[in-house]
Hints:
Blueprint: H1 2-11, H2 17-25, H3 33-48, H4 52-61, H5 63-68, H6 70-84
Amino acid sequence: MLYCICIYNFSRSNRSFNNWLFDYISPRQQTSMLKNCGIQWLLLDFEGSKNTESLKTCFEEFSEEIFNSPRLSKITLRIRNSMKE
């Protein structure tokens, strides 16, 4: 994540880090460790801010990566269960 934060700072983007990160990791290869870290960051941040719209977008956009990663699957399951409450 430190790598992504440095790239974000050097890019001097006017967008929020989460919006920039989403666009940065979306086209990356499926099994990338960087991509999985970015997805985890987004899921946990959106969960913390209770941003259900962005969570649903992440669930849809990264469904294959979430399915293929036990860690992301556990996080997603926990978030989905808490959203039902």
